[in-house]
Amino acid sequence: MKDNLRPSYIAACFAMLVIPFQLMAQQYTFTDLGTLGGSFSQANGINNTGSVTGFSTPPGDLVVHAFRWEKGIMTDLGTLGGPTSFTPDDNHLASNRGAIVGSSDSSILDPNGEDACGDGTQLICLPFIWQKGVMTGLSLLGGNNGAANGINSRGQVAGVSETPNLDPICSPFFLQTEAVVWQNGRPQELPPLPGDPDGNALSINNEGQVVGVSGCASGNFEAVLWEHGTPIDLGNLGGLSGNVAFDINDGRQVVGQSDLPGDTTHHAFLWQNGTMSDLGTIYGLPVSLANGINNNGQVAGFSQDLDSNYTVAWIWQNGVMTDLNALIPADSPWFLIEALGINDRGQIAGPAVNTLTGEYHGYLLTPVLSGGNGPLAAHNRRKPSSDLPENIRQLLKQRMSVRQRWLGPGEPRN
């Protein structure tokens, strides 16, 4: 379990599961976002206008490109000259002004032979901002590679950049990486916690507060909040490694994952007013992760088993964690694996598997109100008719390797 960075994404391959629930006032309509012409897509971010970000395969399923989905139309954002572009697994990837951030291959080989975009090309991987139909690479701290992980309504971008310095403490093969905020395209380095060599900024709110990680790629990670450029250790749930802050709302509430004592598993956390709280998990599953939080305090995330064979998306609100699969139409063939992004309207984006066809697509959930207090129809989740094709498996491995590259092997199981 310690070395598994993400779920297997064929997590719907399980025996029939029947889940009775009580009808809740809030349920959701389900929208399949489709693809860019291939057979695969993943959604991972959503802004308050309902614009969804993610990545998908064009025809042929050989590469992935970042996309914007808006009002039923999926737009290919292109690349910076290489074969691949993508948006990371974080919530605030699209500002309400329409700008989108992510990372893309360039057309230039990395002089150190690194594979920062994780697609096997060894091309330099650059952070980008996409706006008004144009993708533009962001400048770095003197290194070769970087990633843009979040953007706020003011156009400030949070991410990570290599520096020109070797990192002998954590890895003699890669350059040192530091958390960054780009303002008007110019990078400002955010220092790690005292004694730590590396950092990574994963999300930024509209107040300019930034969250992410500080630590060492071959050792421990601490969840961090940067305020006015100063890092604050958010603490942990008892474990020494695998503590990551993934998202922050405008009310200074932070969500992420933290290892439990013994560092064999992690739980989703909510940090507020100086205290980190364990959000627990669902169905007794040992692993959970909170990936997004909106300004109403609703949290989106997922839980999974130790072998990463079963993963289920949930929403946490008012102290209760609920399986999102119980809140969509009971006859839907789609099983919601992860909830990765949530906006202030309560719309949720993430990946789902079609249990009849094995298709893996991004989804959008939109809340609807329904009255009554009777029982909700039991949800039957069938085993898919076939496994994911091998080329799709490889694309998902690429997704895992990108996160591993930037957060390091010390970050477990997500």
SSE topology sketch:
Layout: E1 17-22, E2 26-32, E3 41-46, E4 52-56, E5 65-70, E6 73-76, E7 85-86, E8 100-109, E9 123-131, E10 134-137, E11 146-151, E12 157-167, E13 171-183, E14 186-190, E15 198-204, E16 210-215, E17 221-227, E18 230-233, E19 244-248, E20 254-259, E21 266-272, E22 275-280, E23 287-293, E24 299-304, E25 311-317, E26 320-323, E27 334-336, E28 341-342, E29 348-354, E30 360-369, E31 375-381, H1 390-407
Antiparallel strand pairs: 1-31, 2-30, 3-4, 4-5, 5-6, 7-8, 8-9, 9-10, 11-12, 12-13, 13-14, 15-16, 16-17, 17-18, 19-20, 20-21, 21-22, 23-24, 24-25, 25-26, 27-29, 28-29, 29-30
Tell me what the structure shows:
With 414 residues, the chain is mostly beta strands. It has one helix at residues 390-407; strands at residues 17-22, 26-32, 41-46, 52-56, 65-70, 73-76, 85-86, 100-109, 123-131, 134-137, 146-151, 157-167, 171-183, 186-190, 198-204, 210-215, 221-227, 230-233, 244-248, 254-259, 266-272, 275-280, 287-293, 299-304, 311-317, 320-323, 334-336, 341-342, 348-354, 360-369, 375-381. The strands form eight sheets. Strands 2, 27, 28, 29 and 30 form a five-stranded antiparallel beta sheet that branches. It has a four-stranded antiparallel beta sheet with strand order 3-4-5-6, with no helix packed on it. A four-stranded antiparallel beta sheet has the order 7-8-9-10, with no helix packed on it. Strand 24 and strand 25 (311-317) form a beta hairpin. The longest helix is centred in the C-terminal third of the chain and has 18 residues, at 390-407.
